[in-house]
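quick one before i forget lol
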Amino acid sequence: MSNASLSAAAADLETATAEERVRWAVGKFGDSLVLTTSFGIQAAVMLHLVTQIAPKISVIFIDTGYLFPETYRFARDLTARLNLNLKKYAPASTAAEQEALSGKQWELGLDGLKRYNFINKVEPMDRALRELNASAWLAGLRRSQAGTREAVKAVQQQNKITKIHPIIDWDNRRVHQYLTAHELPYHPLWEEGYVSVGDWHSTSKLLDGMKEEDTRFGGLKRECGLHENTGRTDFSI
């Protein structure tokens, strides 16, 4: 999209409903529109919302190899229930190979964590977008999730792709209302005190005195790189 078109769309979509944002994206980008999911705590909201409008949309799922067992079962069940057109992508090297050659990178400070995230999340996502010929991406970011997301717009450019965030202005209450109204489940670990779920080694329960963003990556950072304008970085295995 041109900068002028993007600015106009951003202004219009700020006051639109989540459904209107999805319909705009489907009408604008057609088959080059994709949806991503991590099968996280509230993933059922976006998966249901979008597939009610675009049932055959490609749903990208990045499997790092370090997900909770509950996440894999949750993914299996939601995929079957919503008849998702799931496209699973994995890192170019296995978890065992990475640990053999580089150790547990997530334990090596911020630089190690950035390297880990690039290899296991950013590179597979870049590959997915290329192979699916995607020009636009629907994502379930919400401003209330973290300080890093407070300024995110309903539609914006990230690197060379247009990102649309249908539920960007939803709070936890609105999410709960949607799940309840459509009889959709939270991730199983919600009942155990998790408010955000990613890799098992970099996710913790929400404890007293913590913010939601503190439950990921030991509080070192909130974003894994998938939702940042970082461009490509040349990390080798």
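fyi The chain has one domain: 3-219.
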